[in-house]
Design a protein that fits this description.
The complex is a heterotrimer of chains A (108), B (88) and C (596). Chain B has one domain: Potassium Channel Kv1.1, Chain A (2-Layer Sandwich), CATH 3.30.710.10. Helices cover 38% and strands 15% of the residues of chain B. Chain B has 88 residues and is an alpha+beta fold. By secondary structure, chain C is of the alpha/beta class. Chain C has a domain of 63 residues. Helices cover 25% and strands 13% of the residues of chain C. Chain C has a 19-stranded parallel sheet. Chain C has a two-stranded parallel sheet with strand order 8-11. In chain C, strand 23, helix 16 and strand 24 form a beta-alpha-beta unit. The two termini of chain C are 47 Å apart. Classes of the chains: A alpha+beta (108), B alpha+beta (88), C alpha/beta (596). At the B-C interface, helix 4 of B face helix 1, helix 2 and helix 3 of C. Strand 2 of chain A pairs parallel with strand 2 of chain B.
C-alpha cells in the first residue's frame, strides 16, 4: 500500500506496509526531506491522531491511500510539556515559531 | 529508500507530489522527460513541472498509479486529458 | 489505444444522465478535448444510449469520427447538429432509417468530411445525393441499398476525390458506370447486384488504381484485365473469362466466387496470377475438377463448402496444404478416407470444418495429425466418439481422445453428432478448449460433469440435452466461463437456472426460461413449490465429487413423460441405478418437440 504524507504544498507518496512502524515511515521521510526523525511529527488527517513511533501503521488504522500530515519542529528544543498540545487534534501545527520563541525564553 | 528513487511532479499551482520513480515512469511522457539526455534542466533534479495540469488532477493521476479510486463526473474531462497527455 | 485511466474516465463520464450533466457545461475543456478522446467519449455515450441531439452540440469542435450505425432515432434534427461539426472526417449513419434525402441538407458543403456511410438508408434518394455532391472532400462514399436511381449514381461522378464507392444493390447501368469513369482515383468499387454487363465491365479498365471490385450478382461473364486488382468478388456470376488482356497480371490476393457457374473452369481461370492468391472462396460453385488448385500454392484460406469436392479430388487440396490455415469442406462428399489423404499435408491448418460430411470416427484420428488446429467443426456428421475393435479388450476406444494431442484446440463443434456421454470423457483433459458446442437429446448430466474440469472453457453450448436441476447444481465450471447456452434443455426449471446464475454471476445463461435476468436479480417471483424439496434433496446429496456409474444411461429411458414432468420439480439423482435399456430416443424426441 502507500500513504500520502502532506506538508504545506508538497505531497509525498510513500510506499509502505501495514506492519511497518511509524518510525520506519519517518526514516523514509528523513531521506527525502533531510530532517531527523526526532523533528518529524505525523498526524493522521481525518482523526487528528498523532502517530506514535513505536506503533505500526495497522495499530493506528492507517490504511491504503490514507493522508497523513507532516509537521516539523525547529532545533529540537521543545519541552515535553508541549506534547499534550501536540497530541490534540490539530492537522497543521499552529505557527511553530511562537512556541519556539516561548521555548527559548523559558530555557534562558 | 533513496532520494534518487523518487521524482517530484509539480502542478500548475506549484503544488508538489513526490512519488516513486518507477510508478511515475509508467507514464510514457514522464519517462521520456526523465530519460532523454539533457532535454530539460529540471529532470536532472528529478523534477517535472506540468503548467497545464491542476493540483486536483495531478494528485488523482499520482493516486491512480497506486490504487483504484472513484472518479467524480465533473473531473472526468480534465483527468482524461491529463492521463492522455501523460500517456498513463 | 486508450490508457486504463482514460478508459475509467470515459466510463465514469458515461455512468448515467446525471454524470453527463456534470461535465456537459465545461465548455473550455470540451473544446480542448483531443479528437481521439472526444471520439471515444462519444462512442461510449452512443453505446450507453445517453446521446441525444442537443448533446451533440458540445462535440462540434472536437469530434472527427462518429459512428451512429443502426441508431433508429437519428433523424433530421441529429443531422442539423452534425452539420456544424467543423472537424468531422468520418460520418457513419448506415441503417439509420429516419435519415431522408432532405435530412442530409445540413451537411451540405462540410469542409473536412472524407468518409460518409449512408448504406441502407432507404429514404435517401437522388435529391439527397445532390446535397452530398457539394462535399468535394469526400474520399469514401457508401450508398449501397439506398433509394438512389441511375440518375443519382451519375451525379456521383462530380466527387473527383473518391477512392472508395459502394453502390451495392443499386440499379447501376452500363451507361451510369461509364459516366463514373472520370473517378480515376477509385481503388474500391462495389456494384454487386447492378445491371452492369460485359459492356460496362470493359469501362472498368479506366480505373487504373482499382484494387477491390465486387461484381457479384451481375451479368458480367468476361472481366477484362485490371492490373491493380487485389480482391475480386464474382459470387453468383456466370464466369467465362477472368482478367484476360494486355498489361501486367494483377497481384490478386483474394478471389470470391461462391455460387458462381463456369462453362469451362480451366479456361476461365487460366489468366489468373496465382502466386499471391491467399484467399479463395469457391463454395457452392459449379467447379467440377479443381485442376487449377495445384497452382495456388500461396492459399491460406480455402472454402470449398457445398462444392463437388470429394475423396477423388481431395488430392488437389493436399498438394497445396502447406500454407493452408483455414479449410472449409462442409457439405461436401469428403469422407474419412478423404480426410486421410489430407492428413499430414496440412501442417499449418488452424481452422477445419467438416460439418455435414459423411465422415465418421476414423476421420478424428486423421484430424489429430494436423498439429496447429485451433477450431474444428464436426457437427452433423456420423462421429460417434468411439470405435469398435473386434476381439480387443475393451472392444472399443474413445476416438475423441486422439484430439488430446492438439495443443491449440480452442473450439470444437460436435452438435448433431452421435456422441453420447461416455464418448465425451476425453474432453475433460483438453487444456486449451474455450468453446464447445453440443446438441443432442442423448446427453445428460454426466457430460456436464466431464466439462467441469476444462480450465479455459469460456463458451459452452449444450442444446436439447437432458440436463437436470441437480446436474446443473453440481456443475462447477471454470471461472473463465462467460456464456452458457442451454436452449432446449427442457428438464431444467427456472429456479435451478436462476440459482446457477446467482452462483456464477460472471456467466451469462441462455435458456427459454431466462428472461431479462438483470432486471430480476432476486430470482423468480412465480410460485415455486419445488424450492424446499430440491434444497432438501441437495442437502442429502454429497456435494461435488459424485461418483458416476460407468453404466450411466439416459435418464429418460426410465420414465414416461408424466413422470419426467413430475421430476422436473424435484431433482434427478445421478445415483439412481439404471438398466441398460434399448434406445427409445425416437419416442423421447417426439416428447421434447411436443413440449416446446
Amino acid at each position: 500500500m502507500y500513504i500520502r504524507v502532506k506538508r504545506s504544498k508538497t505531497t509525498y507518496f510513500i510506499r509502505c506496509d501495514p506492519t511497518e512502524t511509524v518510525l520506519d515511515i519517518k526514516e523514509k521521510l528523513q531521506v527525502l526531506i533531510d530532517q531527523p526523525v526526532n523533528n518529524q511529527r505525523l498526524i493522521l488527517v481525518g482523526t487528528g491522531e498523532v502517530l506514535e513511533d513505536s506503533k505500526t501503521l495497522a495499530d493506528h488504522k492507517v490504511e491504503n491511500d490514507s493522508v497523513v500530515a507532516l509537521t516539523l519542529r525547529k532545533g529540537g528544543l521543545l519541552n515535553s510539556f508541549l506534547s499534550d498540545f501536540y497530541a490534540s487534534p490539530v492537522y497543521y501545527w499552529v505557527p511553530l515559531c511562537i512556541f519556539y520563541v516561548a521555548d527559548r525564553s523559558l530555557n534562558s | 529508500m533513496k532520494k534518487e528513487d523518487m521524482v517530484k511532479l509539480i502542478s500548475a499551482e506549484g503544488f508538489e507530489f513526490v512519488i516513486d520513480k518507477d510508478a511515475a515512469m509508467v507514464s510514457q511522457t514522464i519517462y521520456n522527460m526523465l530519460t532523454s539526455p539533457g532535454s530539460f534542466a529540471e529532470t536532472q533534479h528529478g523534477e517535472v513541472t506540468f503548467p497545464e495540469i491542476s493540483t486536483t488532477i495531478l494528485e488523482k493521476i499520482c493516486n491512480g498509479k497506486e490504487t483504484e479510486f472513484p472518479i467524480e463526473p465533473e473531473l472526468t474531462l480534465e483527468l482524461m486529458m491529463a492521463a492522455n497527455y501523460l500517456h498513463t | 489505444m486508450e490508457s486504463e485511466l482514460v478508459r475509467l474516465c470515459i466510463e465514469a463520464a458515461c455512468e448515467n444522465r446525471e454524470s453527463v450533466e456534470k461535465w456537459r457545461r465545461q465548455r473550455r475543456s470540451l473544446e480542448r478535448l483531443p479528437s481521439h478522446l472526444a471520439d471515444a467519449l462519444l462512442r461510449r455515450l452512443i453505446h450507453r444510449r445517453l446521446l441525444f441531439p442537443s448533446l451533440l452540440e458540445v462535440f462540434k469542435h472536437s469530434v472527427e469520427k462518429i459512428d451512429l450505425r443502426g441508431e433508429n432515432s437519428v433523424d433530421a434534427e441529429w443531422m442539423a447538429y452534425l452539420g456544424a461539426f467543423r472537424y468531422l472526417r468520418s460520418l457513419n449513419v448506415a441503417d439509420c432509417h429516419k435519415v431522408t434525402g432532405s435530412a442530409l441538407w445540413p451537411i451540405t458543403g462540410m469542409t473536412s468530411l472524407k468518409e460518409l456511410d449512408l448504406s441502407r438508408c432507404m429514404k435517401v434518394t437522388d435529391a439527397g445525393i445532390r446535397h452530398i455532391i457539394s462535399i468535394s472532400t469526400l474520399e469514401k462514399l457508401y450508398v449501397s441499398e439506398t433509394g438512389l436511381t441511375t440518375n443519382g449514381v451519375t451525379l456521383i461522378s462530380s466527387l473527383k476525390n473518391l477512392s472508395l464507392l459502394d453502390l451495392g444493390g443499386l440499379p447501376v447501368t452500363d451507361q451510369a458506370l461509364s459516366s463514373l469513369q472520370v473517378l480515376t482515383e477509385l481503388q474500391y468499387l462495389d456494384i454487386w447486384g447492378s445491371e452492369v454487363s460485359n459492356k460496362g465491365a470493359a469501362v472498368l479498365r479506366k480505373f487504373s488504381k482499382l484494387s477491390f471490385l465486387n461484381l457479384s450478382w451481375t451479368n458480367v461473364t468476361k472481366l477484362p484485365n485490371l492490373p491493380s486488382l487485389k480482391c475480386l468478388h464474382m459470387s453468383n456470376c456466370t464466369i467465362s473469362s477472368l482478367l484476360e488482356g494486355d498489361g501486367g497480371k494483377p497481384p490478386l490476393k483474394k478471389l470470391i466466387f461462391s455460387g458462381a457457374k463456369f462453362e469451362n473452369e480451366a479456361e476461365a481461370l487460366m489468366h489468373i496470377e496465382t502466386s499471391f492468391l491467399s484467399f479463395l472462396d469457391a463454395s457452392n460453385s459449379s467447379i467440377q475438377r479443381f485442376c487449377f488448385l495445384p497452382s495456388m500454392e500461396a492459399l491460406k484460406h480455402l472454402d470449398l463448402s457445398w462444392s463437388t469436392m470429394g475423396d477423388d479430388l481431395v488430392k488437389h487440396v493436399a498438394c497445396i496444404g502447406a500454407n493452408l490455415r483455414n479449410l472449409n469442406l462442409s457439405k461436401t462428399r469428403v469422407s474419412s478416407a478423404g480426410v486421410g489423404i489430407l492428413a499430414g499435408h496440412l501442417p499449418n491448418l488452424e481452422i477445419l470444418s467438416l460439418s455435414y460430411t459423411p465422415i465418421d470416427d476414423v476421420a478424428v484420428s486423421y484430424i489429430s495429425m494436423m498439429p496447429l488446429l485451433r477450431v474444428v467443426d464436426l457437427s452433423n456428421t456420423n462421429v460417434k466418439g468411439f470405435i469398435h475393435q473386434e476381439g480387443a479388450e475393451p472392444d472399443f476406444f474413445l476416438s475423441l481422445k486422439a484430439l488430446e494431442s492438439l495443443n491449440h484446440l480452442e473450439r470444437l463443434n460436435l452438435e448433431q453428432t452421435h456422441v453420447r456421454d461416455a464418448a465425451l470423457k476425453p474432453l475433460s483433459s483438453f487444456q486449451e478448449l474455450r468453446d464447445l458446442s453440443l446438441r443432442s437429446a442423448s446427453l445428460t448430466d454426466v457430460s456436464l460433469h466431464y466439462l467441469s474440469s476444462l480450465p479455459k472453457l469460456t463458451n459452452l453450448s449444450i442444446h436439447d440435452a437432458v440436463l437436470s436441476n441437480n446436474g446443473l447444481y453440481l456443475f462447477n465450471p471454470s471461472a473463465t466461463l462467460k456464456k452458457m447456452d442451454l436452449y432446449g434443455c427442457w428438464l431444467l426449471t427456472e429456479d435451478a437456472i436462476l440459482s446457477f446464475c446467482k452462483k456464477y454471476p460472471q456467466t451469462e445463461v441462455r435458456h427459454e426460461l431466462v428472461h431479462n435476468l438483470p432486471s430480476n436479480p432476486n430470482g423468480s417471483t412465480s410460485p415455486s413449490p419445488s424450492r424446499l424439496t430440491s434444497r432438501t434433496l441437495l442437502v442429502n446429496q454429497k456435494q461435488g465429487n459424485i461418483s458416476i456409474s460407468p453404466s450411466f444411461v439416459d435418464q429418460r429411458l426410465k420414465y414416461n413423460r408424466e413422470e419426467l414432468l413430475a421430476l422436473q420439480y424435484s431433482s434427478l439423482s445421478l445415483a439412481i441405478p439404471l438398466d441398460r435399456g434399448s434406445t427409445t430416443s425416437q419416442l423421447l424426441m417426439n416428447q421434447s418437440s411436443s413440449m416446446s
